[in-house]
Automatic annotation (TrEMBL):
<dbReference type="InterPro" id="IPR029035">
    <property type="entry name" value="DHS-like_NAD/FAD-binding_dom"/>
</dbReference>
<dbReference type="InterPro" id="IPR012000">
    <property type="entry name" value="Thiamin_PyroP_enz_cen_dom"/>
</dbReference>
<protein>
    <submittedName>
        <fullName>3D-(3,5/4)-trihydroxycyclohexane-1,2-dione hydrolase</fullName>
        <ecNumber>3.7.1.22</ecNumber>
    </submittedName>
</protein>
<feature type="compositionally biased region" description="Low complexity">
    <location>
        <begin position="632"/>
        <end position="641"/>
    </location>
</feature>
<feature type="domain" description="Thiamine pyrophosphate enzyme TPP-binding">
    <location>
        <begin position="443"/>
        <end position="597"/>
    </location>
</feature>
<dbReference type="GO" id="GO:0102481">
    <property type="term" value="F:3D-(3,5/4)-trihydroxycyclohexane-1,2-dione hydrolase activity"/>
</dbReference>
<dbReference type="GO" id="GO:0009097">
    <property type="term" value="P:isoleucine biosynthetic process"/>
</dbReference>
<dbReference type="InterPro" id="IPR029061">
    <property type="entry name" value="THDP-binding"/>
</dbReference>
<comment type="similarity">
    <text>Belongs to the TPP enzyme family.</text>
</comment>
<dbReference type="InterPro" id="IPR012001">
    <property type="entry name" value="Thiamin_PyroP_enz_TPP-bd_dom"/>
</dbReference>
<dbReference type="GO" id="GO:0005948">
    <property type="term" value="C:acetolactate synthase complex"/>
</dbReference>
<dbReference type="InterPro" id="IPR045229">
    <property type="entry name" value="TPP_enz"/>
</dbReference>
<keyword id="KW-0786">Thiamine pyrophosphate</keyword>
<dbReference type="GO" id="GO:0050660">
    <property type="term" value="F:flavin adenine dinucleotide binding"/>
</dbReference>
<dbReference type="Pfam" id="PF02776">
    <property type="entry name" value="TPP_enzyme_N"/>
</dbReference>
<dbReference type="InterPro" id="IPR030817">
    <property type="entry name" value="Myo_inos_IolD"/>
</dbReference>
<dbReference type="Pfam" id="PF00205">
    <property type="entry name" value="TPP_enzyme_M"/>
</dbReference>
Length: 662
């Protein structure tokens, strides 16, 4: 049947259903009602003139718990709400989350699975969305409410509570959870779900568990429940007394610093941030989620902040007397395990007061753009000390020059490249790489190197999931970003460990025509955690292939290019950086997903920058290396504790502060 026929068939079905029910109601199954409601939600497009669907589609892997009810409803409304098939439940949820991230939370997707392992495979993704404050609607199948067939296939039974199912595991990792035990319940559950998904303070995963019999049960719904509706996104406006308190603190500051987090991007406040920083001469450092808030070349952009930060950003953060934390939850990688802002009073501007109150900060609960505008309007002629601003300009220029050197280093024969060399090749491969490409990554060493070295020229150019640091997000996340931004080149940078964990959505990307460029850095194991293991005094153990228990043929020599070709992608292996440069040009010209693998050094990282990160080392061990590492750990904790206490007492020169190169 052609598209016109499909639209006609759907229209006839809608009409027949509407005419069959009396008193302005429409008789639908719960599954039909849910899908029709989602399809009716609209959002103002980026052009500000037209509207488009709020939900870009539904990723679905069908099983007995959702194929008859929700599956039939998705088929009926497939033109209004597209259904996309994936290959792994966790991966398709990652794709849906990445889609929302790439749209700065203004558009999103739903995900449906069957009961049992399909549902529990979503729990990791739900946690990822929760930590990163990103919207996704999870629709797992569930047990029968009637209990007539009990237990059903794949049911997890609780010995003490007959009302529990495996889906109750979603409760701690959902911002809103509901089990739909009657079709009428959707009349309250769906608006509540939508509010959470579109509220800046509440935003995160929503789980609606769908018992199998309820999915198929019909109910007379009010017809106007399904009228198209333009969704309004909610973010709090600043309140006067919080702005006044922040103004008092700022006016006394001579050495302020802005820590720009993901909330800047989600509030679409990049221009407000640039204007505020420029007007008041305040240097800006970026968190992982906030990278791209300020253009790479902006004179006040010091680069990455924290454990994976640039030397200049961390030096000024350690000396700042006031840190304006905008849209960041100040996790330990940003604050150096709470040792970086030792001289600073913190002002937390955040739509969520819970996040704004971190680091004992003074909170301004508000949309980032509106809060910055309210502050700037009353600061008038106040600026940071001129010497402070000038020092920021100098440090920012020096770091940009250093990055250029690190990513263009000459290659030596018989020496494996490391991550900075590969990053340099990727950015060299396009004259527009800083403004057009989207780089996607998640776990391991690469996020640290990208945070320091990637030149993000616009909001959204940097797409790294580091709130949950979830191995396996990379390729699935790249797919979601490409579905959201099909006009952009999406480059996934992934280590061999994450690739082996979750690579199935390469096949999905080929099937959907969502071309990715995937660069696999093969260091033959978990190189990042291997270095951390040794830094904590441990022996190399169970991370790199060479240090794992092996029998028979031993560790395999994995041909990632051959594997990718088996999933339908184009692929090749680059023997060195020169070959990578050429391969990237072929990848950009290709018509489908293109995978390039290259061998890299598992031990080497960029020495410049960084900060202390607290990882607890065992107090007792038979190994001398661990005992030595514990002694060093105790000394570092004592020094940082003394530094923190002295700074709080008012000293401008705290003793024992960590080096910015640590």
């Amino acid at each position: 049947m052609n598209q016109r026929g499909l639209h006609h068939e759907t229209a006839v079905a809608h009409s027949a259903a509407a005419q069959a029910a009396p008193n302005g109601t429409v008789r639908l199954t719960a599954a039909q009602a849910l899908v029709r409601y989602l399809a009716a939600q609209r959002v103002v497009a980026e052009d500000g003139k037209s509207t488009e669907p709020l939900f870009g589609g539904v990723f679905a892997i069908f099983g007995h718990g959702n194929v008859a009810g929700l599956g039939e409803a998705l088929y009926q409304y497939r033109n209004e709400l597209p259904t996309l098939r994936a290959h792994n439940e966790q991966a398709m949820a990652h794709s849906a989350i990445a889609y929302a991230k790439a749209h700065f939370r203004r558009r999103m997707m739903a995900v449906t699975t069957s009961i049992g392992p399909g549902a529990t495979n979503l729990v990791t993704a739900a946690a990822l969305a929760h930590v990163n404050r990103l919207p996704v609607l999870l629709l797992p199948g569930d047990i029968f409410v009637s209990r007539a067939p009990d237990p059903v296939l794949q049911q997890v039974e609780d010995f003490h509570d007959g009302g529990l199912s495996a889906n109750d595991a979603f409760k701690p990792v959902s911002r809103y959870f509901d089990r739909i035990v009657h079709p009428a319940q959707l009349l309250s559950a769906l608006p509540r779900a939508l509010r959470v998904l579109t509220d800046a303070a509440l935003c995160g995963p929503v789980t609606l568990a769908l018992p199998q019999d309820v999915q198929a049960t019909a109910y007379d719904y009010p017809a106007d429940f399904f009228e198209p509706r333009v969704v309004q996104f909610h973010a709090p406006a600043p309140v006067d007394h919080e702005i006044a308190a922040a103004l008092t603190r700022l006016r006394h500051a001579r050495r302020p610093l802005i820590a720009a987090g993901g909330g800047v991007l989600y509030a679409r406040a990049a221009e407000a941030l640039r204007a505020f920083a420029t007007q008041h001469g305040i240097p800006v450092a970026e968190t992982q989620a906030g990278k791209g808030s300020l253009a790479w070349g902006d004179p006040l952009n010091l680069g990455a902040l924290g454990v994976t930060g640039s030397p200049g950003a961390n030096a000024l953060a350690h000396e700042a007397d006031c840190v304006l934390a905008v849209g960041t939850r100040l996790q330990d990688f940003t604050t150096g395990s709470n040792t970086l802002f030792t001289q600073a009073e913190v002002i937390g501007i955040n739509a969520n007061a819970f996040d704004g109150l971190k680091h004992r900060g003074l909170v301004v609960q508000a949309d980032a753009g509106r809060a910055l505008a309210a502050l700037s309007a009353q600061l008038t002629d106040w600026r940071a000390d001129a010497a402070w601003t000038q020092r920021a300009h100098t440090l920012a220029d020096e770091w940009r020059a250093t990055v250029d050197q690190l990513t263009h280093a000459p290659q030596r024969d018989n020496v494996l490249p490391y991550d900075a060399d590969v990053i340099g090749a990727v950015q060299r491969s396009s004259a527009q790489s800083a403004t057009h490409d989207i780089v996607v990554c998640a776990a391991g060493t690469l996020p640290a190197e990208l945070h320091k070295l990637w030149r993000a020229g616009r909001p959204g150019a940097y797409h790294v999931e580091y709130g949950y640091s979830c191995m396996g997000y990379e390729i699935a996340g790249g797919l979601g970003a490409k579905l959201a931004r099909p006009e952009r080149e999406v480059i996934v940078m992934v280590g061999d460990g994450s690739y082996l964990m979750l690579n199935s959505e390469i096949a999905t990307s080929v099937m959907l025509g969502a071309k990715l460029i995937i660069v696999v850095l093969d260091n033959r194991g978990y190189g990042c955690i291997n270095r951390l293991q040794q830094a904590c005094g441990g022996a190399p153990f169970n991370n790199l292939f060479d240090d794992c228990v092996q029998h028979g043929p031993g560790a395999p020599a994995i041909d990632f290019a051959a594997h990718a070709r088996s999933l339908g992608a184009l692929a090749e292996h680059a023997a060195h950086i020169g070959e990578l440069d050429a391969a990237l040009q072929r990848a950009r010209a290709a018509d489908r997903t293109y995978v390039i693998s290259i061998d890299t050094d598992p031990a080497r990282t960029t020495d410049d920058g960084g900060w202390w990160w607290e990882v607890a080392v065992p107090e007792v061990s038979p190994r001398a290396g661990v005992r030595d590492a514990r002694a060093q750990y105790d000394a570092q904790r004592a020094a940082r504790g003394a530094s923190h206490d002295q700074a709080r007492a008012g000293s401008d020169d705290p003793a024992g502060g960590p080096s910015a190169n640590e």
